Task: structure prediction
Amino acid sequence: MAPKQGKFCANHKPSIGVKAWRCIEATSLVSMWGTKMRFHVCLAALAASAAVASPAFAQQVFPSDTAQATARGVVLQQHSLINQSNLDFGIVTTDGVNSGSVTIAANAGGTRASTGGVTLLPSTSSSARFDGLAAPLETVVLTLAPPVGNVLQDAAGDQITVNSMSVDAAGLTRAANSIGNFTVYVGGDFGLTATQPAGVYSADFQLTAEYQ
Result:
């Protein structure tokens, strides 16, 4: 029955009854395809909504804070301690009767003096001098270690006693100057017997600087 109505619609001028059928057909098509059409319309609306909303999310400004700090560090120049002159009490002699001593002051002048049966003879003498390099105004702690056994010795094995050794008036703890330099003088007191054998006496001692 329906095909005839469709054919009638195609070949004749529509009548009221045909129009009514066409209206029914249209309604039927909408009813038939309505769900799918609505689904596509909803997807399209959702896509359009996303397209409109995306830029808004991308441009959203969140609260923020900014703080500034400084990256810094200190590079120290190389530390050093160099011996510039040795501790030398020069040339002395003994009277053969009395023991005595010879001393060298722990200062730049290295003042020389003697006691007992020791006589000072014209010669060059000096305190030991050490020049150091530290960081500007850095604290320097010194340690003075006398010769092993506290003696000087000549090639024959004869010995002179090291009574004492000391650093200058600045003491064992001092500060480097504004450019990091410091100087240390070391003096000593040496004991000779009345019949001290002739010879060239020597021994090593150590000065250590710790930087704090």
Q: What stands out?
A: The first helix runs from residue 2 to 11. Residues 72 and 206 are 37 Å apart (CA to CA). The longest strand covers residues 181-192. The helical segments are 2-11, 16-58.
